[in-house]
Amino acid sequence: MYKCTLPVAVALASLSLGAQAAGFVEDSKASVTARNFYINSDNRNGTANPSKQEEWGQGFIFNFTSGYTQGTVGFGVDAIGLTGFRLDSGKGTHYNPTSTAKGGTVFPTDSDGRAVDDFSSLGVTGKVKISKTEAKLGVLQPKLPVVTYNDGRLLPQTFEGGQITSNEIDNLTLIGGKLEHAKGRNSTNMDSLTIAAPSGGTPNRRSNAFYYAGADYKLSKDLLLQYYYGNLDDFYKQHFLGLTHNLALPVGSLKSDLRYFYSDSDGKNASTEGRLAGYRASGYQNNGEVDNRTWSAKFTYSLGSHALSAGYQRVNGTSDFPFLNQGDGASAYLITDVQIGKFLRAGERTWLAQYAYDFAALGVPGLTANAIYLKGTNVNAPGSDRSEWERDFSLAYVVQEGTFKGLGLQWRNAALRSDAVNQRDQDENRLIVSYTYNFF
What we know:
440 residues, 20 strands, two-stranded antiparallel sheet, mainly beta
């Protein structure tokens, strides 16, 4: 377990409190989110465990964001507190099949193989601001094309490192940083970083350095251009180009989302000796070396309460799409990263269709529905290419007024059918009740 940079953050906080603290206090925000989360996964065919996963818990997410002290150099401190309580989880339904995982789908695993009764963690971040440039050191939750935190369970994933964000030039945001550790959504430990290893082998080696940098340039109010670079030391280097455009039509509007990733091997992953030592990537006939080019296009037409999307993604190269993945739940910035699958296997070609509806037009504000279908083909595998499909449906409601204003209710249902190697068919239901209370 890695000890976080709490002393550094506390020192920065002390400096800020010692300075003129008007902005520090007046601009501070604090909230707590209560999240009740239930998940039931029925893994249908195949022999690999488990056949069923089912867990239910109550989580609390406390967020504190300070303002900055006044002066040329402003100091501040942020904090995030996470705690989860087990409401239901049996030994037979807690099991997690991944060899690198240290817990079930929601909770960490106790010494007897069962889910723990509760788990908690605290993260602190010190920050400094000069003009329109901000530096942070400590616990981070980046949401960028080359690294994005996962919030798909009871508690969110967090990372640890440093980041600088600059908005000195109008319409241009520059970001750079280094991450050293990650804490999984079902864990209390900060562990070093890695990617998905080939199935059936030993766990991967790990790295303590993920470097990233990028730029968001708003060419106009409707057009955003992006470039990002990510490098997990001794594993992979990745370049990303993105374009997002909103076009107003005589009837409705059209949003275009174009993405391209170029990923190549780095350091020990580039050598046979390094890959044999455990610096490997998943894929087919790639001997564990990163070799991937993934591009996608998604178009969404919106008219009133309706939104209809169509998209296509192609994964080229001999390795699967690489991204930070500790084996305990991770997100990839792909249009195909959905409830169960990610459709990122070597050679895979995926098309999707999606429909969303806002019931406000029918007099029920706060109620929304969303359905998506994805079909992936040409998955490289021994013997012949494989295919898979997934269908997701979600229904969500947020109370709009009254005593329970802001209370969120959500049901998410998904079905995955796949003949990819080591992938079982799966049906899944999630029930989520959430409420955020703002202290100030």
